[in-house]
Design goal:
Layout (H helix, E strand, L loop, with lengths): L4 E10 L5 H22 L2 E7 L2 E9 H13 L3 E12 L10 E3 L3 H6 L1 H7 L8 H18 L1
Parallel strand pairs: 2-5
Antiparallel strand pairs: 1-3, 1-4, 2-3
């Protein structure tokens, strides 16, 4: 059965408490579970963390993308979850990424300084298209440097 592809873009506020080690452990857990679930559900995408916010792009069959977003909304580590876009797409922007992650390193911060200057790294001020483009460009850079 050929299922049409959809792209979902959202951002949320970080509700992970504790020190840097606790934060890193929680993000590692989010990524591990996302990669397992996404591979099973034919979802690809990328996750960005910066300045207390997460932004994510999910791509795949509509029913699977909606189910993943429902799990995210119920995860206590995410607060103020805001849907920015849910659109049909013709092809995937993240075909090689069950869940790419950018934003943890200083190098990542430097790479999206232009976006930061215009938004104050406030992901709530970016559109779904801007977040998608940012994550697509950063993951392409990751692939090229790997």
């Amino acid at each position: 059965m050929n299922q049409s592809l959809h792209r979902l873009v959202y951002y949320s506020r970080n509700h992970i408490s504790g020190d840097e080690a606790a934060f890193a452990a929680n993000v590692d857990d989010i990524l591990a579970k996302s990669r397992t679930n996404n591979a099973r559900d034919q979802i690809t995408g990328a996750l960005l963390f910066n300045a207390g916010c997460f932004a994510q792009v999910l791509e795949g069959p509509l029913e699977n993308v909606e189910a993943a977003f429902e799990r995210i909304q119920q995860d206590d580590r995410h607060g103020d979850v805001s849907l920015l876009a849910l659109d049909p797409i013709g092809h995937r922007s993240f075909p090689n990424w069950a869940m790419g992650f950018v934003g943890a390193s200083d190098a990542d911060g430097e790479r999206f300084a232009g976006i930061g200057a215009s938004s104050g790294f406030d992901l709530s001020r970016l559109s779904g298209d801007q977040i998608h483009t940012l994550l697509r460009d950063l993951t392409l850079e990751e692939e090229a440097s790997a």
